[in-house]
Amino acid sequence: MTSSPLPTFSTLRKDPILFLGLGLGSGLAPFAPGTAGTVVALCFVPLLALLPMGYLLVVLLLASLAGIYICGYSANKLGAKDPSSIVWDEFVGLWIALAGFPVSSFWLVSGFVVFRCFDILKPWPISVLDRKVPGGLGIMLDDILAGIMTWLVLHLAAVVLGLSV
User: If phi over 0 gives left and psi between -120 and 50 gives alpha, with beta otherwise, what is residue 8?
Assistant: First the structure.
């Protein structure tokens, strides 16, 4: 697959699926688009936190399933396997990481930092999924797992620090 140049924000407005895939345009950031996408994803956490846990889990499942299509479509459109400009996976991964946590500076910053570390460093088994699973599913799975691992680390931290979640 030959990579095509990044679209402009104007082009994204005409393609709603690519607009979502590139994180509402945050994936166009010239430096660290994954981090930029994660910052934009943080903006939605207070809204998601208003949902009862059952509804939140449904939203996360739907965002994950839709993300397989969104990320696969975006990768095909951009002509690359997993371009860094696709950040919908970071959105969903972060939302999973912070599911059920209070909306406070401590949890938002902690979740952001731990999630970015897992997403960038890709420890086992995240690295295996990143390398072995193709297409939109592969793009989504490593970030979903990074989100789950972050969620577990945050819960462990809450227990160790005696914090309520």
Answer: beta
10-38 per-position pLDDT tens digit: 889 999 999 999 999 999 999 999 999 99
End-to-end, the C-alpha distance of the chain in Å comes to: 45
Q: What does the pLDDT look like over 126-146, one tens digit per residue?
A: 999 999 999 999 999 999 999
Overall domain count for the chain? 1
Domain extent, residue 72, equals 9-161
Per the listing, tokens 């577990």 go with: 152
The tokens describing 94, both together, are 């972060």
Whole-Å CA distances, 102 to 41, 55, 163: 16, 16, 11
Task: Answer yes or no: is 1 within a domain.
Answer: no
Query: Is residue 4 situated within a structural domain?
Result: no
- Are 61 and 95 a contacting pair, CB within 8 Å? no
Residues 145, 2: Cα–Cα separation, whole Å: 28
Evaluate whether 102 touches 165 at the Cβ level (below 8 Å). Answer: yes
Residue 147 belongs to a domain: yes
